User: Fold this.
Amino acid sequence: MKKIELSPIGVIHTPYKEAQNIPIQASFGNGIEAHCELFDKYTDGLKDLDGFSHAILIYHFHKCKDEKLIAKPYLENKEHGVFAIRSPYRPNKIGFSIVKIKNINHNILNFTEVDMLDGTPLLDIKPYVAHFDSRPNTKAGWIDKHFIDGEIPSQVILKKK
Assistant:
């Protein structure tokens, strides 16, 4: 197959300078604010996104140099295949987060529910649409056992600090 080449459309700016303090998923990064700064030529693409409550940010794990097909997630000491976890050690280093839109000002998308490093290259933005994206009767494999009775696992709470 041909090589696929992607170019950033902007940069994600967050208060997180190091991976140690980042929540393990965007939904656990509630009160923290961040923003995406789109390059000027992409500003028009933000038209009407402010009518959505959430957006899906697709980005490059630019600081991750390793690739592992088997890795250990934050929630447990057991290793899993990289396609069964959300580790940055992926072959193509692509990440995504569903963030809560605060507002949009020209080429700046302000949001909360942050779980990415400052300076992360932004590859794309898609609106989160519950009618399309939410699925009934889902299961989350090995992760389900960590959220019994709706309780948040202690590893998530510790990781948030």
Q: What stands out?
A: Residues 154-160 form the longest helix (7 residues).
